[in-house]
Design goal:
The structure holds 2 protein chains of 2 kinds.
Chain A: H1 3-16, H2 22-28, H3 31-36, H4 42-46, H5 50-68, H6 73-78, E1 89-93, E2 98-102, H7 107-143, H8 151-157, H9 163-189, H10 210-216, H11 221-256, H12 263-270, H13 272-275, H14 278-288, H15 294-301, H16 315-344, H17 347-355, H18 360-388, H19 391-397, H20 415-425, H21 429-453, H22 455-458
Antiparallel strand pairs in A: 1-2
Helix pairs in contact in A: 5-7, 7-9, 9-21, 11-16, 11-18, 14-19, 18-21, 20-21
Chain B: H1 2-33, H2 54-61, H3 68-99, H4 105-117, H5 124-133, H6 142-152, H7 159-166, H8 170-178, H9 183-194, H10 196-212, H11 215-221, H12 230-237, H13 243-276
Helix pairs in contact in B: 2-13, 3-6, 3-7, 3-10, 6-11, 8-9, 10-13, 12-13
Classes of the chains: A mainly alpha, B mainly alpha.
Chain lengths: ~475, ~280
């Protein structure tokens, strides 16, 4: 058979056989398939795929051994509802004449191991489902007189038809262990009283929605802070996004004027703030605007001010400062982004506007703006969500200051920096988790709606 | 009409020049401070009174309190490993999502989109506990923990690379497939060579992450000064007990880190622009 015929016949085979679900496999399969519900890989072994079937069986045995063994998965999961209650104890040892410490429970580890084992169990179920289906398929092929793939062929297919399994395995595994699992873990903390308050750092319990209630209740102390931080976060994200966008667009258009020379040089100079690491540039600014910093010193020595300007100590000054400094960081990004779009606006539209005698302002509002908004709306929305999460600018510049006495959040704290302080500095993990979940829900709804409605996503296949 | 245009142009030039000065003043100030002979954070005048190269020399020779040279080596090793691992991740995922159609493709892409919305350190504490449970937070395992943390997210950072691979004509793959190439051969012999500019961009951006991150590194390394990266080192120079002695050396260190990062950025931008204009024309 030539390669071409082989491809065609393989495609034909693929078309005849729609994908099989677990239910249809069990319904259509006979005794062997039913038995393979319990003994994984039996279907494969019976139909000749011995190595594959044996591997399935081996995985099952290993899983069961670790799951049911002492301190295994079942035990870890069973401790999830209680989260442990043994305190660390002291026992007097007569023979040695010392206090010996008996190990107490650590709710944090119980929670982590329990969740990890739940995830492993779910992954095992996915594999189990796959093994039943695979066994059913192999049996069916054998019944119909075809030879199921040998193990060598299966391995070879990992470099061809199933290459996605090979290539995606490692990235996905890393993602699951170091991104998804921590996320689930963090979210579950929101339903506990894991906090330095009331000394709940070692042993803590489930508390249901208590944390959510106290945070969203605008009468409680923490609730008041939540709403004020949320308000400032939205104000900040709005100004940071739209001021950057409009001033950046304006600047990009100035540089783009036909009569201006050295376009590249202007853009490069402005792009220095992107190129220099933010922790350097923002920490430099921070030391410049201190009460004894160079800005205040110079202004005082020129006789312009008599006392230092309260850049970091007055709420309004600090808020304006972060927005202005963010322009310094953000405008170059807008220029890079907008310049490309500006060059793509059809020249004819400008010519037509000129013939109609439109003023430069009218040309801007009726030709340039509509085109840009059309192309850049997704960009603006990602910028907005990015600014809600803009940790660097706030944390490096003001650290959320000024902080009023008795508050855990400062006047310039965003949800994200407040969350960082709540967990790293104040160890109120439960409240931090609630703030995290809230931010996540808002952002993901915005993002998924935007992307799923965007042209490039809907029309992904149409491009080629 | 013509004079009006010239007048406007002159105004624009003056405006742009003024803006560029404002843009560069902080960096220029930082550069001057790194040559300042007087210690301390705050000074009276914009320009230092006496100039010296001592700050740069002492940064590398006085290693008993803050060992900047070792931090440089630490960061370099971590950066190389991170760069290899995350480039591999990004290339694999973007090839699969761009060229292949499989059942968990869309769910994976949506998941990546949502995960990208989290700044990574939101679950940083949880990541720390997991690494601790795996025994990676003590002693010589710390660099490995950092490499894992810096590259673990790479599986979600594939959108730009995927967008680029989307522009490589599918006809090339089909032709190769008819000639008997496996998908693996198509990946290594067609897609990768054609993505060269974008790979350079990817390599450089992932190489830069360990140099500029200080949040992750601070949580993982904690007080183990032996494993500090450059950015934690610079951060700790500004702590209250060090700042008087170390401020000018902080400036010197900041200059030393910024120059290569800035140069790499400028170089990559060229590749990025090249990449954005499409791979195979026609």
């Amino acid at each position: 058979m030539s390669k071409l015929e082989k491809t065609v016949s393989m495609k034909g085979r693929f078309l005849q056989r729609p994908s099989v679900g677990l239910l249809s496999a069990v319904c259509n399969g006979g005794g062997v398939v039913w038995a393979s519900l319990i003994v994984m890989g039996l279907g494969n072994i019976v139909s000749g795929q011995i190595i594959k079937g044996a591997l399935f069986l081996l995985v099952e045995l290993l899983f069961l051994a670790f799951f049911l063994g002492p301190e295994g998965g079942a035990y870890q999961i069973s401790r999830l509802p209680g989260l442990g209650e043994r305190l660390q104890g002291e026992v007097w040892n007569e023979d040695k004449g010392i206090f010996e410490y008996t190990e107490g429970d650590r709710s944090q580890l119980i929670l982590l191991y329990g969740i990890a084992w739940l995830c492993i169990a779910v992954l095992f179920l996915v594999l189990w489902r796959g093994s039943v289906i695979s066994g059913y398929k192999a049996l069916r092929m054998k019944r119909e007189g075809e030879r199921p793939n040998s193990f060598a062929e299966d391995i070879r297919s990992l470099f061809d038809g199933n290459i996605h399994r090979l290539l995606m395995a490692l990235p996905t595994a890393f993602l699951l262990v170091f991104t998804v699992l921590p996320l689930i873990y963090m979210m579950s903390m929101a339903f506990t009283d894991f906090s330095r308050e009331n000394d709940k750092l070692v042993l803590f319990d489930w508390v249901g929605f208590d944390n959510f209630i106290s945070i969203f209740n605008s009468n409680s102390a923490v609730g008041k802070q939540f709403w004020s931080v949320l308000g400032w976060t939205l104000v900040w994200a709005f100004f940071a996004t739209f001021l950057n966008f409009f001033l950046g667009t304006l600047l990009a258009m100035l540089i783009n004027r036909t009569s201006i020379k050295l376009k590249g040089a202007w853009r490069t100079v402005l792009a220095t703030t992107i190129a220099v690491p933010q922790f350097v540039s923002l920490m430099v600014i921070r030391s410049m605007v201190q009460p004894q910093g160079i800005v205040n010193r110079l202004l005082a020595s020129w006789g312009l001010i008599s006392s230092p300007l309260p850049f970091l100590t007055d709420a309004t000054w600090a808020r304006v400062l972060v927005i202005v400094i963010n322009l310094w960081i953000g405008i170059p990004y807008t220029i890079l982004q907008v310049t490309g779009v500006l060059n793509n606006i059809p020249k004819e539209q400008y010519d037509a506007a000129k013939v109609d005698g439109a003023s430069p302002f009218r040309t801007f509002t009726n030709v340039t703006m509509p085109h840009m908004m059309f192309v850049l709306t997704p960009y603006l929305i990602t910028q907005f969500t990015g600014n809600i999460n803009n940790f660097n600018v706030i944390y490096l510049l003001t650290r959320g200051e000024p902080i009023y006495v008795g508050n855990s959040a400062g006047a310039t704290d965003l949800l994200i920096t407040w969350l960082y302080k709540l967990s790293v500095d104040q160890q109120k993990y439960n409240l931090a988790a609630v703030v995290g979940i809230f931010t996540f829900v808002v952002l993901s709804v915005v993002a998924l709606v935007t992307y799923n409605n965007s042209k490039s996503y809907k029309n992904e296949e149409g491009f080629k | 009409m013509r004079t009006k245009r010239i007048v406007t142009d002159v105004f624009i030039y003056i405006f742009l020049a003024g803006l560029c000065v404002i843009w560069l003043v902080p960096f220029f100030w930082l550069f001057m401070q790194s040559f300042r002979a007087e210690p301390g954070q705050f000074i009276e005048t914009f320009f230092p009174k006496n100039y010296t190269l001592d700050n740069y020399i002492r940064l590398f020779t006085e290693t008993n309190v803050i060992n900047f040279a070792r931090m440089f080596v630490n960061t370099f090793v971590i950066a190389v490993c991170t760069c290899i691992l995350s480039t591999f991740f990004v290339l694999s995922v973007s090839y699969c999502t761009s060229r292949l159609r499989f059942s968990f493709r869309r769910p994976y892409m949506n998941m990546a989109l949502v995960l990208n919305l989290f700044p990574g350190f939101m679950s940083m504490i949880a990541v720390y506990f997991i690494l601790k449970a795996l025994g990676l937070t003590e002693g010589d395992m710390i660099p490995i923990a950092l490499i894992i943390v810096f590259s673990a997210g790479a599986g979600t950072q594939f959108y730009v690379m995927k967008g680029y691979m989307d522009t490589i004509p599918k006809a090339l793959d089909e032709a190769a497939s008819l000639d008997g190439c496996t998908k693996w051969q198509i990946f290594t012999k067609i897609t990768l060579p054609l993505s060269k500019p974008m790979i350079v961009y990817q390599v450089v951006t992932s190489f830069m992450i360990p140099w500029i991150d200080f949040i992750f590194a601070r949580i993982i390394v904690r007080a183990e000064a032996k494993y500090y990266t450059v950015s934690i080192g610079l951060w700790s120079m500004l702590e209250r007990e060090y700042v008087w002695d170390w401020y000018t050396r902080f400036c010197a260190g900041a200059v030393l880190v910024s120059i290569p990062v800035a140069i790499l950025f400028m170089v990559t931008q060229r590749f990025y622009r090249e990449a954005m204009s499409g791979s195979v024309k026609g």
